Amino acid sequence: MDKIRAVIVDDEEHCLDTLTWQLKTYCPNIELLKSFQNPVECLKYLMYHQIDLLFLDIEMPLLNGFDLLNALPKKEFALIFTTAYDEFAIKAIKHRAIDYLLKPIDRSELETAVLRAEENKKNLELKLAELMKDMDMTADLKIAISTNEGVILVQPDDIVRCESDSNYAHIYLSSGKKHTVSKTLKEVEEQLDNDSFLRVHQSHLINFRYVKKYIKGTTGHLLLQDDTEIPVSRRKKTELMERIT
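RE: above sequence
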């Protein structure tokens, strides 16, 4: 039987060391690939490596557990939260049938959670989306932008617009910075999946919070706060008008 390839991320060194020891001692079916105290380093690893199971702390500096999950384009692994989080969060996690271990971690609960891990992998994306809605967290989540410089974490509210360039996309931020990613505009749109954004043209995705006004015409244009003019396609005009009126 193949071993379960696992990764741990927890900013507290003693928790990381304890869980590492417990897995090696009580869970011989686990192959621990990596353990991280820095969630950003863990995110970079997960972007390029396939794993079976992630042990994820919720409360961490720089990047909390939910931010880390949201930043990953795909979550093709089982998930076990490790947390000393408040009662409300635990109820929400249980309600969505996602496994969690309450610190300090009990041996029998750890063994049970590992056995359940593969089954609970099903529909993880949907479960996480519903959990984040339950906890009213969706507005604060970051997305990961993978560029030539590395992985950059961005709040969706800071994205002014995105523009297609063949199999690449340019992402323009409110700070004035521009990042180019090796993704199509459709892939960027799917990653954002936010009511604040609309694909107004085959080549343009805009954030409504930065729209200054709509300029009428055969198809029309949007004038953004940075004075950029964005064309609106005929087929998107009706949807746009419904959103801004």
